Amino acid sequence: MKPNHIELEPFPKDDDDDDDNDTNALLGAEGRTRGIERSGWSIVLESAPTLLLTTVSLLFTGELLDHVSRWQAMRTIGELIMIVPVIMNLKGNLEMNLSARLATAANIGQLDDPKRRRTIILGNLALLQVQATVVACVAASVAVLLSLLVPNPPPPPPAEDAATLLFAVRAARPLPINTGLPKSGLVEFVMVAASSMLSACIASIVLGSFMCFLVVLCRHYGRDPDNIAPPVASFLGDLVTLSLLGAISSVLIHWVNTVLPLLIAILLLCSAAACAVIVRGNSVVRDLIWQGWTPLFGAMVISSGTGIVLDIFASKYPGFPLLAVVISGLPGSVGSIFISRLSTSLHAAASHLAHASDTGPSSRHVMLTLVLITLPIEIIFLVILHMFGWLKLPLVFALFSLGFFCCAVWLSLVVAQSLTHYLWSKGLDPDMYALPIHSALMDLIGQLLLVLCFVLVSFLGVTL
Question: Could you tell me the pTM of the whole model?
Answer without folding.
Answer: 0.72
